[in-house]
Design goal:
Layout lengths: L4 H18 L2 H4 L3 E8 L6 E3 L1 H13 L4 E12 L5 E12 L5 E14 L2 E11 L2
Parallel strand pairs: 1-6
Antiparallel strand pairs: 1-2, 3-4, 4-5, 5-6
Amino acid sequence: MQPSPELAIRMARAAFNRALAAGDLAAIGPLLAPDVVLVAGTDSAVIHGRKAQLLAWKREFAAKARNIYSRIPETVIVSPVAPIAFEHGRWEGVSAEAATVEASGHYTAKWRQIDATWQLEAELYLTLD
């Protein structure tokens, strides 16, 4: 039996968080739709496409003063008319060295079920701290 769409999205987000913590690009790729868009929280930089996002994460993983980012879902709203959903929650970047929160805020993510998997289509971040 397959999990509900909400549970499947929450499981995919947990897998994404684990991949970010481990610096595992191979695990991140399948969670991203080919034309995924990320709008960063502080400078509103736009990262368009799976390849571009994986390159950005590769640079982040190689940084000397690396932050480990995680998203903490608060709600997942699944559309009753299309295989899409919105996820809302909080995010934070924690220093890998000092284990202190360096930045945090809120986010919204749009997911789409492609074949049998839920993939990120868009993420929009707001930096609050």
